[in-house]
Structures are given as C-alpha cells and as structure tokens.
Amino acid sequence: MKTLFFRCCFIALFVLVVAPQAAAQVKPLMENDQVKIYEVTMKVGAKTPEHSHPADEAIYAFSGGKVKVTLPDGTTKITEYKTGEVKWRTAPETHVAENVGDTEIRLLTIQLKKPQGQQPAKEP
C-alpha cells in the first residue's frame, strides 16, 4: 500500500513540476502580395509544430542560439544562429524546429512571395 501511495505521489509531483513543452511563438508583423514578415521567439526547449517554408526568405537573428530541425523523413540537422547574423534560405522545407541551446532565440523572418531560388537583385 505504501508503495502505491509513493508511486501516486511521485506521478502527481512529476506532472505538476514538469511543465508541458512550450511552443515557439510566431508573431505576424506584416503581409502583402510580395512579402510576409514575422517574428519568431523560441524559449529554451521550445518546439514548433510541423510547418512549411514555401518561399525564399531572409532570417535575421535578434538573439541567436541552436535549433534542431527535424524533417518529415526523420532526418535532423542543427542550425546555429549568431546574434546579428542574416541567413538566406532558398529551398522549400517542411520541418519541426526545436531550441536545443541554452538561450532564448528571437528571429525576424522575411519571406518573399515569388518563385523559388531567385536571389534578390544586388544593390549597385
């Protein structure tokens, strides 16, 4: 009886102390017929639901960190964002992203609404 009592207490304590995994927050900032701009905030351990990036995009890291990306086939890769860095993504991708670093990540994503693989024109 004591064993059952302690098991129940342990389970209840585990459920109360271990919070459900936080989801990343996506805040839309602007969208029109040419571009979609949004801010992503990922606390340590936060994970996104599976989602797609269908178009070319620039990603600016307000606050960097490490993200584990899991593709639909189970393949994983780690991407590191450095604060102040800008990355360019051209390939469409469906994935789940998880903050596996030890800092909160904040990204500004600017997604273009035009055919894949076209780099923006270079400034003179």
Structure, explained:
There is one protein chain. The protein is mainly β and 124 residues long. Helix content is 13%, strand content 45%. A five-stranded antiparallel beta sheet has the order 1-2-9-4-7, with no helix packed on it. A four-stranded antiparallel beta sheet has the order 3-8-5-6, with no helix packed on it. The longest helix has 16 residues, at 2-17. The termini are far apart. Residues 4-20 have low confidence and may be disordered.
Topology:
Blueprint: H1 2-17, E1 25-31, E2 35-42, E3 51-53, E4 57-63, E5 65-70, E6 76-81, E7 86-89, E8 93-99, E9 105-112
Please count the helical segments. Answer: 1
State which percent range the strand residues make up.
over 45%
The end-to-end distance, rounded to whole angstroms, is 79 Å
pLDDT < 50 runs, ≥5 residues: 4-20
> Spatial order of the strands in the main sheet?
1-2-9-4-7
- Rounded to an integer in angstroms, the radius of gyration calculated over CA atoms is 19 Å
| Assembly level | single chain
User: What is the ordering of alpha helices and beta strands?
Assistant: HEEEEEEEEE
What is the approximate shape? globular
Count of extended strands: 9
Class computed from helices, strands and strand pairing: mainly beta
